[in-house]
Amino acid sequence: MTVDLAGATGRTGGDPGRSGRAGGEADAGKKRRRPFGAQPLGILFSAPYLIFVGVVFAYPVIFAVWMSFHDYFFTAPGAQVDRPFVGLDNYVTALTDPDVWRAFGNVGIFLIINVPLTVVLSIVLATALDRVVRARTFFRVAFYVPYVTASVAVVAVWLFLFSNTGLINNVLGPLAPNPSWLVNSALAMPTIALFVTWKGLGFYILLYLAALQNVQKELYESVAVDGGGRLRQFFSVTVPGVRPATFLVVLLSTITGANLFTEPYLLTSGGGPNGASTSPVLLIYQKGIEQQNPDVAAAIGVVLIIFVLVIALLQRRFVGREES
Amino acid sequence: MRSKIVTYGVLTVGALAFLFPFYYMVVGSLQTNPDTSIAGAFPHPSNLTTENYTAIDGRINLLQGLANSGIFTGGVILGTLVFGVLAGYALAVLKWRGRSATFALVLLVQVVPFQLLMIPLYVMIARDYGLSDSYLGMILPFFINSTAVVIFRQYFLQLPKELFDAARIDGAGEFRLLWSVALPLVRPALLTAVLLTFIGPWNEFLWPFLITKDATMQPLAVSLANFISNIAASTTNPFGAMMAGAVVLAAPAVALFLIFQRYFTSNDLGSGVKG
C-alpha cells in the first residue's frame, strides 16, 4: 500500500533514488535532483489541506472581491443572470452609509478597551499563576472555564447579571447607570468589550504562561541583587521578556474584535441601542443576508480586511515584531 | 511572605470573577422566581425547581440540539485529526518541494478572520451547492483546521530524527512510520488537539446560524440563541429558562475540560500558536 502510493508520487517525480529516500533526507544535493523533493509523499499528505485552503479560503476571498465590484444578488440555484461590473459603486454605497462608519467606530471603542485590558490582566494573572505552587490547578481551571464555554451560554448569564434589575445594579444601588448597561448608548459597547475580555482572558493567560517559561530566571536574581523589588522585576524583566507573546496577544485580540458578532447580536439585541454597539460583521450579516445585498456586504468585508491589516501593521510598529 | 499574599489575593479575586457567573448560571437555572438581590445568589431551598429545564425543553428540543452539536463537532474533529495529522507530519518530517511555502500558507490562513469570508461562503455553500440545513454544510468550512496543523507539526518536530531514519532503513513506508512510530509517541498531543478543536465547533454560533433555518437541524448554540432573542420573553421565567439552556450548552464542554484539563497545558498551546 505504502510502496504503491510512494511509487505513484515518485513516478511523476522521476525517482532514481527511491531506495535512498531514508539516507537522502538531509542531503541537499540529492534533493535538488528530484523535482518534488526527497520525499514527494509530503505533497500527497498535504494535498487535502491545500485543496481545502483553495476551496474554503482562497476562492471565497477572490469571490468576495469579485462580488464587491459587481451587481450581485441572490438567485435561485442555477439561474443564469447577468451580474454587471459596477466599479466602485458598492464601496461608495458602503462608505457613504453612516451605519458603516458607526460600526467601524464601535470596533475602535471595543479595541481601545479590550486590547489594553486583555494585555494587562492576562500578564498580571499569568505572572501570579506562574509564581504559586499551591492550588495552581484550581486557579488555572477557573481562568480557562469562560474560554471553553460557548459565548451563547455565557451571554445568557450576562444578560441576567447586567439587566435593568439585575444583580450588578442591585449591588451598585444608587450608583447603577440609568439607562442600564446594555440599553445605554454610551455603555453598551464598553460592556460588550468587558464581556469579550472576560471570556477570552483564559486563552491569553495560557499564552503568557508559555512565554514566561522562556524568561531567564537569572535576570530576576540580578535585579534582586541590584535591590529591585517584585514590581521592579515585573517591569524590567517580565514585561520585556514576554514581548513576543504581547505582540501575538494584541494581534489575536484585534482579530477577535474584527470578528465580533455573537455578543452584539445577543447582548444588545442586534447592536442596539440605535446602532451604538453594531459591529462590522453584524452589519455584513444584516446587509448581506437580511437585506439581500451581498455585493455591498462583500465590499464592507473587503474594507474590514484592510482595516485589520492596517491595525496589525500599526501594532507591529508600536508593539514590535515577534522575534523569529 | 507579603508578596505571596498579594499573589494569592490577585489570583483569588480573578478566580471569583471568572467562576461567579457560572455559579450564578446554575443558581439562576434552578430558581422558581428570579431573585436578583444579593441574597438571590444564595438561593433558598423553597425557591428551587427544575421547571426551567422543562420549560426550555418544551420550546426548543434540547436533546435534538445536543445531538446536532455532537454530529457537527464530531465531523469537524474527524477532519481536523485525519487531515491535520497528515499535513502536520508532512510539514515536520518529510522533505518535499513546496514545504516552506505550504507552512507560510498555514500561518497566513490563521490570521484572516473566518467571518470575513462569510458572504462568499454562504453564497457557495447555501446557494450554489444547496447545503443549507445539512450537517455537511455546517462542517465544511471547519473541516480542516490550520491551527491544528501547526500544533501537529510542532509535536512531530519534537520527535528525534534518528527514530525515523532507523525505521526507514528497516524498510518502513511513510504511512507505516506515521501510524506505528509517530502517532503513538504523540498521543497526549492528539488529546490536546481534540480538546482545543472540540471547543470551536461546539461553541460556534455564526456559521450554523446562517445556514440552518430548520429547527431540527440546529446545533444547541443556535437554538438557544434563537430562544434568547425571540422566544424567551413569552415564558413565565425567561431568565430561568435561558440559564437552564445555558447550563445544558455549557456542561459538556466544561465537563470535558475538567476531566482532561491536565492535557490542556500552556506549553503545548503556546508552542502551537507561536509556530
In CATH, the topology of the domain at 62-218 in chain B is named MetI-like fold
The greatest interface between two protein chains, and residues involved on each side, is: A-B, 113 and 104 residues
Strand content of chain A: under 5%
Q: Level of helix content of chain A?
A: 55-70%
Tell how many strands the DSSP assignment of chain A holds: 0
| Helix/strand order of chain B, N-terminal first | HHHHHHHHHHHHHH
H and E string of chain A: HHHHHHHHHHHHHHH
Proportion in β-strands of chain B:
under 5%
CATH architecture title of the domain at 62-218 in chain B:
Orthogonal Bundle
Share of helical residues of chain B: over 70%
Low-confidence stretches of chain B: 269-275
What is the CATH topology descriptor of the domain at 98-320 in chain A? MetI-like fold
Helices of chain B, by number, come to 14
Describe the structure.
The complex is a heterodimer of chains A (324) and B (275). Chain A is mainly α. Chain A has a domain at 98-320: MetI-like fold, CATH 1.10.3720.10. Helices cover 69% and strands 0% of the residues of chain A. Chain A has 15 helices and no strands. Chain A has helices at 2-13, 28-33, 41-68, 89-95, 98-131, 136-148, 151-161, 167-172, 188-212, 217-225, 230-241, 243-258, 262-267, 280-290, 294-319. In chain A, helix 5 packs parallel to helix 9 (188-212) and helix 6 (136-148) crosses helix 9 (188-212). The longest helix of chain A has 34 residues, at 98-131. Chain B is an all-alpha fold and 275 residues long. Residues 269-275 of chain B have low confidence and may be disordered. In chain B, helix 7 (146-158) packs antiparallel against helix 10. Chain B starts with a helix and ends with a helix. The chains are: A mainly alpha (324), B mainly alpha (275).
